[in-house]
User: Fold these one by one.
Assistant:
Number 1:
Amino acid sequence: MGKREGIDTVMGRFVHIVIPAYNEAAVLADVVREVQAAGEYTIIVVDDGSRDATFNTARSLDNVIALRHKLNRGKGAATKTGIVAANRLGADIIVTMDGDGQHDPSDIEALIAPIRTGECDVVLGTRPKVKGEMPFIKIIANKIGNIVTWLLYGIHVSDSQSGFRAYSHFAATIIDTKADKYEYDSKVIREINNNRLRFTEVPIKVRYTDYSMGKPQKQGFINGIKTLVRMIWGMLV
Amino acid sequence: MKIHLYQIIIICISSVMLFQGAKEFFKRETGQTFLKFAVRVVVWGGMGLVAVYPNSTMHFAKLIGIEGNINAVILTGFLLVFLLIFKLLSAIEKIEQNISELTRKEALSHLPEQTPIDRNTDDGQ
């Protein structure tokens, strides 16, 4: 852990929020403002080669570091870029969250609390898997994803696909995966296991809106199958 | 015991693939898991086994119901196709990773300079 642990991190000064975004111009400004209202964080938005005005929107916002992938490389690649950037900027704690507004920034404090107290290196936000709070098809897909992650990577977690996570500086430095797409989230579980990182799971709220459920790049059924195939194929080649 | 050319070739290829897999696994290189290593051992070890003991294919042929020397042709074809797919996908994966890394470096080159980094460790990524 860094020298500033217990001093600046308590003030939230070196908590960096990484928001990977692809074609999220419609909601990105609201998402960023919500995060800013939730606490004093450094916000890094990584536009993953969007075709809309996502990057210009991010750049126009106050106190936001906007980075852009010139090519669309996937959510995992954008998240990793944001984490590397946060590390270079001296982040003590890094939180990753989706850019479509489905994560509630008021959960950030609960998410980073176990890292602040030094209990663990990684905190995984877990979405409620209750019918009514999460679409039924997502509950099934999530359970399948958890089982596959457990079989392939050796740790059973409640939500292997959640993008709302917090990492200590140490964890963010040591976790190294080349996964570019949605399998990134599962590969992080593998890294936790391989590197013997301490982790815990914290319940988070999730807001499924027409926007987040309707966008084509979401982790839907087809993308879920693709992710599954990539995870299995990654074991073979 | 007469040794055929195909047996030598298959044993050589299998040995190289097994050696590479074992080296990557025991050096704990990124992405090398026990399951991946086990798959390598089963696939390439199986190839080597068939090359060393060709009669084992007869048992397999009986099991799946194929008879005759066509086994050798199928085995050779399968080996070549498998090798090609392995190499092709590895190359594609490597290119994809390089593209992502280049894209990341370009994006990070615009990262604003901010001073207060007081760490002994680098980000290492």
Number 2:
Amino acid sequence: MADKHTNLIVSSSPHVCNPADTANIMRDVVIALMPALGCAIYVFGFRALLLTAVCVAACVFFEWAYRKALHKEQTIGDWSAVVTGVILAFNLPAGFPIWMAIIGCFVAIVIVKQLFGGLGQNFANPAIVGRIVLFVGFATYMTTWPVTGHMSGAILAHAGADAVSGATPLALYNLGEEVPSHMEMFLGYINGSMGEISALALLIGGCYLVFRKVISPAIPVSFLATVAVLSLVFGRDPLFDLCAGGVMLGAIFMATDYVTSPITTKGRIIFGIGCGLITMLIRNYGSYPEGASFAILLMNIITPHIDVWTRPHINGVPKAKKGGAK
Amino acid sequence: MSSGKHLNGIHVQHCKNTAGLAVIPFPLPEKVYIPMSQNIGAPCQPVVAVGDHVKVGQLIGDCDRPVSAPIHASVSGDVVGIETFMDQMGRDDVHVIIQSDGKQEVAETVKPPVINSKAEFIAAVRASGVVGLGGATFPMSIKFNVREPAHVDTFIVNGAECEPYITVDHAAMLSNGADIVECLRTTMKWLEIEKGVIGIESNKPDAIEIFKDLTKDDANIEVLELRQVYPQGAERVIIYESTGRHLIAGKLPADVGCIVSNLNSMLKLGMFLKTGMPLVSKSITVDGNCIAKPQNLDVPIGTMINEVIDYCGTKGDIRKIILGGPMMGRAIPRDDFGVMKGNSAILCFDETFGAQRKETACINCGRCVAGCPMNLVPTKLAKAWERKDIDTLREYDVTTCMECGCCGFSCPARKQLNFEIKQAKGWVMAEDRKAAEKAKAEAEAAKAKEGGNK
């Protein structure tokens, strides 16, 4: 009797795991964002790429520097800061000043994410809060939309002869002016934040994420469906509302952020409906032309409550008995 | 009866490298080390002494407590030691050590049992020494002897074999299908159960074919094709898939009218009923990326695990040895343990497979929730355990966990959800027991006081 194989590793089961880890998942999100980035570069030119690169670099740097300064384990390898950087950049106009974008990255990574304990602990989506802070702090720059030759005639007509600054379809709609055609909006020949212009590019990314099982379709579908239904109810144009503004980007990439969205399918549907509802209420009644980011932020905040309300039911335990005799 | 609904689960890589390989006998070991704790319940006491000559199938350990199963000699030879040392479960355990004489003489006691009544059948089941061979090691005789027999209407043979790598049940189905069906019929007859179900995961179409053919004239036996979703072989899952009934934590299958038996247990019981040879060997899959020749072996109980590994040949540096499948099996710290009844696989892996994965923060992705067959919220339980929050653990039904490992498998943050929940479950159950004891003691004290006042 002798112990032949020594130095054995003892660990708890399961001894195998699904190949998908956090870094994999985040990398898939970055890949899914690429069609929209391509579209932004096509429409807005090199400045779009530069702004995205700066945001990614700033987010990764702030995460690295914060962890380094506080002697915490480095987490930049999980790609989550890259995702935040790209999404934050997508929420900015292509001509947005670089130094302001870096402030947005600081808010997103240091204040919203790291101060609450890093990945998994933040109560709101970092990119959304970054965007809202910039929107409130630098309102003029956040609503100065560059005009390029790739855009719809309706936008160019509004911009007029000087063509330095244009308006988004939602702004045109609120002004009661002619809006771009559905096809122009679907493809992205419009003005707006860099990453949100092309519904098609975002949908391609969304399909990739669903196909890779990174996200479940529950939130995007319930979000977009609610927007479409309410658009009809309010007597607006559903296709216009789906393609305009940040709804598509928000529904596919921001509302689906795991950390700040509910954990069950039922909860995710409630979350998506809530996002769609608030978005449309702001669009229709609010003073802002766009409400997707506020909608997602508000729903982020009530996510823990949704998780409690939609707790899965244990198989075979009668509902009435729960919490009773036991 | 399938309601069309299914319990949650996960998709695992099957890695059934030994599928289709027959179970071949392991060459006789020189010495066997037979532990006396081989079933859930009470351990056995040796009934032989050092110096005794024993034959194959001879009783060497037994226990008069109800939840127990006798243990028999797996080789013929002399008892050279009765010693206490650590067994593969990490317990200090009495081992009967037998030096084989190489003759494999069969004990005189080995003869087919005569059964004329249910009581005699149950006695025979106990005498067979068979326990739940899938790993739970619950004595078959206790499982069959339910409190309210009239309430039980379905007997389920569990041939799901949903753990990756393991193929011994599959091999048994291919080679001994008729014996298994016969044992099922005998069991159903004596236990007066109307309906038999043989559940087989659909990754074994050849076995399903064989059993459909064997039972085609028998309206009482259904061959149920199970989905390829882990853990179809978990008792609660297979009961739900077979009958649509939910078995909740703390209840026994008989409470929902079912008896579930491992397929190899039925085969070994059938052999005992036919020949009188009790459970003295165990079919084991030996596989893993460090095994040169993966195969299915019939290994005498008490054979050293390292002898089995060496017989199959090794390649590379073994860093992890798992007894059972990779989802629920146990990694052992040493390899000099005797094979026990509950072992169904010995899997050897190198560093690349065995290394601990680095844990990162939970990102709330919900994969553990989507994977849990019991509809628990594993991440919530694990977080509650980390902060020792017993109220949340109770509120979120931690004791419902059956430790199937789906949550830990799914977790992209590589958190050891299963391990944390297992510990949390143990803690809550211990606290509950303490509370119950305290309440009982208080009630008794109050009673005594009342009596004193009178």
Number 3:
Amino acid sequence: MKIPLIYNVRSVMQRPISTAFTALGIALVVAVFVAMLALANGFASALTKTGGDDNVLVMRKGADSEMSSGIAKADASIIASFPHVALDGSGKPMVSPETYVVMNIPRVGGDSTAIANVVVRGVSQQAFAVRKNINIVSGKTFGSGQSEICLGSKLVPRYRNTGIGEQIRFAGRDWTVVCHFTAAGSSFESEIWGEAEQFQGAMRGGSGFQSVTFRLKDAAGFEEAKRALTGDQRLQVDAHKESKYYADQSKFLGAMLRFLAIMITSIMSVGAIFGAVNTMYASISSRTPEIAVLLTLGFKPRNVLLSFLAESAVIALIGGVVGCLIALPINGVVTATTNWASFSEIAFAFRITPLLLLQGILFAVVMGVVGGFFPARKASKMPVVQALR
Amino acid sequence: MKYFPLVLSNLRRHRLRTVLTILSVALALFLFASLRTVVTQLEISSQLGAANRMVVQNATAFIFPLPQSYAARLASVPHVTGVTWANWFGGKYGDGKKFFGPFAIDAESYLDIYKNDFIVPPDQKEAFLRERTGVIVGPGLLKYFGWKIGDNVTIQGTIFPGDWTFTIRGTYSLKDPAYGDEQFLFHYDYLYEREKDKISPGWFILRIDDPAQAGVVAKTIDDQFRNSPAPTKTGTEQSFSAGFMTMFGNIQLLLGTIGMAVVFAILLIAANAMLMNQRERTAEVAVLKTVGFTDRTIFSLVIIEAAIIAMTGAVLGIGLAIILPKATNFNAFGFLPGFHVTNGTIMVGAAIALLLSAVSGFTPAYQAARMPVVKALRRVE
């Protein structure tokens, strides 16, 4: 027969401080676990969301990032004429040849040594259509032939002079901010967009681009398009699926953050488990007569084992819930690090998902069960006669 | 301390509890010391650089080069005693999984300016300088790829496409490990020979005769080029490293917060263990008091017991943090220049252990000392 859970609850209430300390210890481990994985999640999802599945990013052969790539204007036109490129409503190819530069722009509160490298992307109006999820939240896009720029929404609070109508100076010119855009949390939100022709003149010189992005006519036709592009004798290019290109950029740092999270929390969790072991042993030894009575009453040793395991698991569960609550406010907090593939700053938000919370709670329960096992076994194997004395 | 045996036998009473508590303190301090070491190592990296060296970059963006003609103009700036330049050469070797940053350097002047930091044996240096395709490779990189001096290695360029073959002519030793043992330094001339149209120096490095004049030198240079097509941004090598470190984001805050959580978590565990000990000893304490132990002695007995647990844990934990990275040669995927637990970290760890003893021992010690004897004696069987 099962020992009712109310017995455990009442026993726990007998030792409120000890229980609270154990639960809090576990709560802290879970809080660190959830917060660190939220950081890793946020970073990975910002880059993963950047690329579109049916977009193709074309760069020079051998270039490992847009920064080291280069595509001549004539080649960009050749790429636009490929039959694999989707056409928009008016029959124009959905293709965006882009310039790409990383600029050092002063940050709010940053001193002169702080480096804040911001991606400055020269695009055409088509870019807003080729890339899904781009939403202009205020203002309207830059005009042709003007020194006008659009800012990703994550830049706005982090840099100076980012309001609509204000001017930012770089590359020897003043640029008027004419719009802010969002991009579903992706890394485009950390970029400055302007007209490619303006940036070509002001920065790189010449009329070349760094990359060409186009929408596939047939979403599943990436391999075929890639074959056609790389096989074309006139071009020296590589084609990348846009989504994979950006996801790959997050791989290293994402994996490192995850590794760090797991390593730190597993070491912490061993400490917390030891704490639970201590608490459960103490609790059992002070309840020796009770356990003996339970066994005398006819409860099976197995029931006693399960009952104490449940007790430990419940304490840990409470700890897990508290830990999730401690970590929860961090959700959505924006932080920044560098995308080492382009040496540019990428801002992203901590991202706590229901799955992550569930993992945190599960982690807590596992700690409780592991920590409670040996004490619970000891309780179940207690020699009744001796204990009854 | 004549009551020491008493403390010891108290500790021995619940051996498992004592051991587990010590181990959790040890784990926590190990974690704390390791996290703090990451922060201190990053700080060391951010102060990397000799006080008498300055870096000149393109002010527009660091990826833009500077004209070669600046070399002569920089050399004529007052206080500048040496000029060299380098360029970033993105390259991959083999499957490209291992990241390393080959630099194209103006060989002779570069090795001269860095002669106290990258120590190259004279015969190797001579062999390197003689051969345009020669390269000097850091000992760490040699070991990683299993290269030897004399080997030919082919790197695939990412910025300058194609296959580039180099002959390893030398390696170096470092006085300060922070400069990194994975450098790949080859002749700027070799790059120039193949990429004449595209290449000019990525940045200049200056040696100045008086570090105190760094600000003046920087201003002179930046003013001189302000209205040119390639304006400059000049700073000391240290400010350059510090700027680079800010690119990681706020690691200090992140690791600091985790460290706090870790310390607080063990505090709970240790304090809980001490409270449990004391609760079980009510009767004993009453007996001790009856036979004449003063409140103060009782108080200190408990505090000492807590201190032994915390200190043993601290010694184990911090010791592990010092030994483990050395034994495993851990360098955080090459991100950190070595992993050296500083004296500061040891001191902070010791302070935490002291605090831990005081906080975890105080309540139980106070309770024990203030315990009314008559009431407690009733529990004695």
Number 4:
Amino acid sequence: MNRSPYITNAPTVSSIMFKVLLALLPGIIVYAWLYGGGILITLALATITALTTEALVLKLRKRPVQPFLSDYSAVITAWLLALAIPPLAPWWLVVVGVAFAIIIAKQLYGGLGYNPFNPAMIGYAVLLISFPVIMTKWPAALSFAETKLSFMDQFNYIFNHALPASISMDAVTSATPLDYLKTQLKLNQSMDAIQAAPIFGVLGGKGSEAIALAYLAGGLFLWQQRIITLHLPAAFLGSIAAMAGIFWLIDPLQFANPGFHLLSGASMLAAFFILTDPISGPTTLKGKLYFAAGAGIITYLIRVYGGYPDGVAFAVIFMNICVPLIDMYTQPRVFGHEK
Amino acid sequence: MNAPINIAGLLEKTKDVFNFHGGVHPPENKAQSNQSPIGQLPLPNQLTLPLRQHVGNIPNITVAVGDHVLKGQLIAEAEGTVSAAIHAPTSGTIAAIADAVLPHPSGLSDRCITITPDGNGTWTKRHPQDWRQGDVKTLVDSLRLSGIVGLGGAAFPTQIKLRSARSPIHTLVINAAECEPYITCDDILMRERYAQVVHGIEVAQRLLDAGSVVIGIEDNKPEAIKAMQAAVDGTDIQVKVVPTIYPSGDARRLVYLVLGKEVPHNKRAAEFGIQVFNVATALALYRYFEFGEPAISRIVSMTGNVNQAQNFEVLFGTPLMHLVKAAGGAKADTSHYIMGGPMMGFNLPSEDVPITKAANCIIAASPTLFEPPPPAMPCIRCARCADACPVRLQPQELYWFAKSDNFEKAQDYNLFDCIECGACSYVCPSNIPLVQYYRYAKSEVIALDKAQEAADLARERNEFRLARIEREKQERAAKHAARAQGAKAAKTADKSLATTDKQAAIAAAIARAKAQKDVVSTAPKNTTGVSAATKAEIAETDARRTAAGLTESKATDGDKQAKIAAAIARAKEAKVAALDAKNNKAN
């Protein structure tokens, strides 16, 4: 180095991203245990798609391929999207979603560091809007389902859309708890009756709540490693809990309790892994609180009043738009300046 | 030295200090150079003294090549207000006054005085002064001859900081934080020369008339703290132990650490009633007044990739390699030398540079000591830099603005508050040389301002020139006119003198004409709007009246007047008749 500072002490971008992948592992393991090995196929498929498209576009943009492929950021996008979509999604859905996320939402904006939106959430939103039926059909957690699909069955279903003759699709899939709750409430079912359904667990969805807790554990690992601070997760989960708490206190028969909202859908994944994407998020501490709280409120409102069962992707994308504004208005007081 | 920090002890020692935001804690690397006492160098064969060693004007040379000078003799005197004198560090002969490479990042050459020592070290006559009782103004004024500048690295002439300020100084802060890694010159100075340091602080306190004095020392210098605490016993000087957080030695940060006061960004600490002195500067003050010794040497840490890192008392102008040799020589893989610390220092442009007043530390660098950084990656907006910034700036935003040449926005985000401490670069996962971007942006803004100033000046000059041309044109025209008028007047005068009779005749004629005019002017004035026929009527009546002698016209030319009036009336009548005929015809 020929100019000061001559010394540095910082983790590399690669090591930061790699730790994020590591932190996702507990959630993935619980996921695979509950829903079967199909998720591993989806993850592998997403990873290959992400790296291929990233390399291809970097080459077209005449950028060095190797340093950018080894920063793991494309793999994070791939994994987040793979974990967000239903586990038995057909292979082409994964490929389309990831390719869109990497090519359109990331590389066309300038690649790493330049994307204004979270690429995984853009990919998710595109899939949800384009293929709503597939995107909202989730298999019941295998461990609790009567009909079990083997790893090869899942492989066949993902690539050939074929199930063993004895099993019908309806037997393995069902609505997600958030989806079920919404439709049943419209049918004027009482909250107690709805939550007595077999897809519900202790607080969230049966099985999925365990995955949520595993994400929480991974997130705390990131915090311990000082990759993230708790500003974003706390503000996001706090605002969801606050919203859910107020509505639930007003009418517990019409609105699910805060615990359900914290452990359902993508709450935990978003809190620790999606909102914490530094590139598309705000940089000031105060801004992080506004950003995450806003995302939490919008997520809750979409869940309760919107057209989709979960609202994380849209909430995050909307708040991404607000980031420059948030950053601008939350500048901390500079040393020696008046407020 | 790098033992784990005793948290309880730390809290105990650092209570009543005010931590600033951010900061970093790089490996200290101070143990290499602070284990042995201050070393003395053999006299080098040559001393090269750049005129440009301080902030401000270049001093005027007062010697010539071939002159013999004594140790401490003035060889260049301060020029203008902000400047510092230069003295011969030892006795010898002025060998040359020529350009040589400066120890400056630019690598430029500039005027230097080269002395060949005679080896005797004969002092010139020294003038000690009574700093305890002497007149403050006299003492401060005499500092102009001391050559003392801030020895913390800024090299600002000390005299300026001691002149009676517009706002009185209530607190003197002594900067002994020495927060940069590797550097130990202040540490060793306090350990060995604590008594003189305290006297130096007393000098500054008296000259500033400061009510309270606080010394800030980082807690990684326990020996220095102990020595200073013992030395200030019985004085009103207070030693404050501050935590080891870079950049605690930055003046504004240190003031906050020890006093809890933020110096406003647009004010100097002095305007705020606080003055900050480096500990070594204080000692230099003492030696100047007590012994009459001007600034001719300083303590320099020679460390890094050398065989025996140590602090040395170095005469200004000593060749760098002479110092390196004294430290056991550089190891084989030494690539270059750094002046200052690893956070804010710079590469010396050559091995053939002298040690100057600003040189607190020289680090021999090697690729293993300071690894070349991996290539920079894009900013991922992780804001670790913002967490580290001691000024609470947003380095990631400043980087973005500097990179896109958006200097106006960069200034909105307080670019010029950046102290270039390098904490942001130190923690950047993408290895972005952030400080370089800020230096670039600052220099661009300054250059643009200068260009703007020059353009304004040029425009002003042009406008002034145009105005001058216009003014001269008018003046010329006026002059011409005046001259023409003058000529005319002269001509008339001549004529009048020559022909007085004629003049009298003319005057009579004028008088007559006037009289005639008076008659006309007595005519009713409200005739403008009336028809030609009515006018003719009026004229006729007038004529008749005149003829009858009813008007006040003078009798002398009454007949003539009447004749004229009658003639006019006739003419008018004819005209009216003609007009009427024409009108009738037309109808």
